[in-house]
Amino acid sequence: CSLTATEVNDLVEIGTVINQAEGTITVEMVYEGEGWLGYAFSEGDMIGSTAVIGLPASGDVAIYSLGGKSDELVVLADSQDALSDATISQEDGFTAMKFTLPQSFAGFTVVDGEASPIIWAVGNDSTLTYHGFGNKGDTDLAFSNCREGGVVAETEAPVAAPMAPVVPPTTPVAPPVEAAAPPSDAGSGSV
User: Which residues does the chain have with pLDDT short of 70?
Assistant: First the structure.
């Protein structure tokens, strides 16, 4: 299935899809930088939310209870049963996390074509530390159902191309060559 990608700020893109037949959703979060990644369904409040957090230093992706803003109040949830197919990786200055959850999770139910409120954060480090003032946000993401062959429902959210590093050409590009003027005709009668 194809994920519908939404750019949530200049450095973070989140792709989503509903796997209706399985009753699950899949989320992929890509950060143009290196650090931990966090994603939660929430009306904008971090405190009291249940988040999926990926830690590249250990390779762990897990469900956390966000009891407060200090490190000791962000604790591993008692159950990890809802989380599946979870990965996190770093390559070429990008961090990517992908995971699958039940369609109903942490008090929210994702419905085809309807916006779901989320919060997200990225860290400046690959271990769980304070994310910093500008490395967080909230938005509404519209999820679409999946069928064989890709996404079947369009969303109103902007769709961003997958973020990839810009690689300069290895050989210089020559300027275009102008066409030579046609030879003048000596018998044109010009005086």
Answer: 127, 129-133, 147-191
Distance CA 4, CA 160 (A): 8
Strand residue runs (E) in the chain: 4-7, 12-19, 24-31, 37-41, 50-55, 60-66, 74-76, 84-91, 94-102, 104-105, 108-109, 115-122, 136-142, 146-147, 150-151
* pTM as predicted: 0.74
Give the separation between CA 16 and CA 2, rounded to whole angstroms.
Answer: 9
Buried b (16+ CB within 10 A) or exposed e, 180-189: eeeeeeeeee
Per-residue pLDDT reduced to its tens digit, 118-169: 999 898 877 676 666 678 889 999 888 985 554 333 333 333 333 333 333 3
Strand-pair partners of 52 = 39, 63
